[in-house]
Amino acid sequence: MGYFIISKDEAIKLLENRSLTIAVIGQGKMGLPIDVVFLEAGYRVIGVDVNPETVQKINEGNPPIIGEPGVIEGIRKGLKEKKFECTLSLEKAVDESDVIIIIIPTLIDKYRNPELQPVIKLINSIGAYMKPGKLIVIESTVPPLTTEQIVKKQLEQISSLKAGKDFGLGFAPERTYSGRAIEDIRDNYPKIVGGVDPRSTERIALLYETIAKKGVIQMSSSTAAEAVKIFKGIYRDVNIALANEFAKISEKIGVNVHEVIKAANSEPFSHIHRPGAGVGGHCIPVYPQFLINIADQFGISAALTKKGREINLSMPYHVVNRTIIALNKVNKNLKGSKITLLGLAYRGNVKEYRYSPTFDVIKGLKEYEAKIVLHDPLYKEEELREIIDIKFEEDLKKAIHNSDCIVILTDHSHYKELDISFFDEQANNPYAIIDTRHIFGHINERENDKRVIVGIGE
Ligand SMILES: NC(=O)c1ccc[n+]([C@@H]2O[C@H](COP(=O)([O-])OP(=O)(O)OC[C@H]3O[C@@H](n4cnc5c(N)ncnc54)[C@H](O)[C@@H]3O)[C@@H](O)[C@H]2O)c1
Question: In angstroms, what is the C-alpha Rg of the chain?
Fold first, then answer.
């Protein structure tokens, strides 16, 4: 058959009849929602993962994912209707599918260089099993030029087939927000697609037009599509850095940065983001490094991108300084004080701690010999044993009991719903609150005989 090598009319017929099998390589936070959207549209889907436990759980109808509405139900429905299966066998998936979507993690190493080896290894394996007619779509975020210069070259070399003639290849970034992935993929944004040749772009576009309600934006190349994802991510990182810079200055000139940003954003051209303890997750802190690395290769300094990273990476230490200031106001020192950190997750209500600023806040506080206790409603102590070397307390009341300072690092709904009197009753009065997420912004009385509230930029 060969979706890529048949005529356009034949390809459209296959799509209309949903007679294509889609392999989704990587069954994580993003891979599973992609499975579900293609299943909902009527396709047969094969999920592939390297983790046997993940594959087993998915096949049992219990995918290891929380906080993504619709995923569990969608996977169970697919299994029941025998339209979906998950496998460890890449060979089987490549053999039985027409389209192969790659959505495995792309991170940075300890020197902050892009870690592309897992993608390259996977591509080499796919190349070994490739047959003419297949379409390969990279959805994992990669540095610009990766699809054209690395993936295409490797695939052609290993498979002895030619991209654009024997198989299709392109990039179509995953543009979703954790917690609403299915909705974002299906309803909220047009899908960006860019092939390594016009036919690849066309075939990827035809496929995604069948799942994305807002349609498809066809880019002129895979590199342009890669740049969309990276540029947008960096825009957010630099924008947050700017908000953080404004916050530090606001603290000195005696204005409240939140009040100022809100007023500034009443103009349609102002979209200043929120300041905070830094930037986490495996997207926004990672993508600037992809660009910095590629710019370096071309002898260009991505100066603004670098500065943005530098500012955001400094914020956890700024939080430590704010903690010292706040403790001074209640006549206490960091050394020996009980400091309760609320939130390990990098973002409210998202169970994800990769690159969370909380790690650097812990590092900074440890230098002052503070007694640190961490709480996060999304985690159990056993899940973090290998991750952190400070006390983790599952019970919030116990975590803040007798605390000298409570540092709010993540705006989980669980915290936002609390009344400040709960803290007043449990903490070691007078105590301090460092509200890096502005959840107590509505409280006008910032200092009283029980406590002082200190924020970022106010
Ligand atoms: N999570 C997000 O909010 C988000 C948003 C947009 C884009 N992305 C991008 O999506 C990609 C995947 O992210 P994620 O959040 O789904 O990651 P994840 O860590 O949740 O899941 C990745 C899955 O891939 C599996 N895997 C790793 N190597 C594999 C291989 N060689 N073959 C098969 N399976 C393999 C892992 O076992 C894991 O189950 C990343 O490039 C990320 O940048 C993520």
Answer: 24
pLDDT of residue 179: 86
**Catalytic: which of 57, 86, 191, 283?**
283
Using DSSP's 3-state secondary structure scheme, residue 213 falls into coil
Ligand 1 atom closest to the Cα of residue 65 is 20
In short, whether 48's Cβ falls inside 6 Å of ligand 1 is: yes
Q: State whether the beta carbon of 104 lies less than 6 angstroms from ligand 1.
A: yes
- What would the two tokens of residue 283 be? 């997207």
CATH number of 243-458: 3.40.50.720
- Between 95 and 108, the more confident residue is 95
Class of domain 8-220: alpha beta
Identical topology for domains 8-220 and 243-458:
yes
**b/e map of 3-37 (b: 16 or more CB within 10 Å)?**
bbbeeeeebeebbeeeebbbbbbbbbbbbbbbbbb
Instruction: Give the atom of ligand 1 at the shortest distance from the alpha carbon of 106.
Output: 41
Rounded CA gap, 285 and 278, in Å? 9
Binding site membership of 122 for ligand 1 (Cβ less than 6 Å): yes
Provide mean pLDDT across the span 88-98: 98
Distance 104 CA to ligand 1 centre (A): 4
| Cα 132 versus chain centre, distance | 34
CA of residue 140 to ligand 1 center, whole Å: 7
Note the helical H segments in 4-161: 8-16, 31-41, 52-59, 71-80, 90-96, 117-129, 152-159
Residue 314 CA to ligand 1 center (angstroms) comes to 27
Assess whether 283 carries a catalytic annotation: yes
Find out whether the beta carbon of 67 lies less than 6 Å from any atom of ligand 1: no
Cα gap 448→453, rounded to integer Å? 9
The verdict on the CB of residue 28 being under 6 Å from ligand 1 is: yes
Rounded Cα distance between 401 and 425, Å, is: 8
Task: Read off the pLDDT of residues 224-258 as tens digits, 9 standing for 90 and up.
Answer: 999 999 999 999 999 999 999 999 999 999 999 99
- Annotate 317-359 with three-state secondary structure: HHHHHHHHHHHHHCCCCCCCCEEEEECCCCCCCCCCCCCCHHH
| Per-residue pLDDT at 1 exceeds 80 | no
Per the CB < 8 A criterion, the answer to whether 317 and 359 are in contact is: no
Domain extents for the chain? 8-220, 243-458
Taking the CB of residue 1, how many other CB atoms lie within 10 A of it?
11
Kindly state if the Cβ of 176 falls inside 6 Å of ligand 1.
yes
- Among the listed residues 29, 134, 229, 332, the single catalytic one is 229
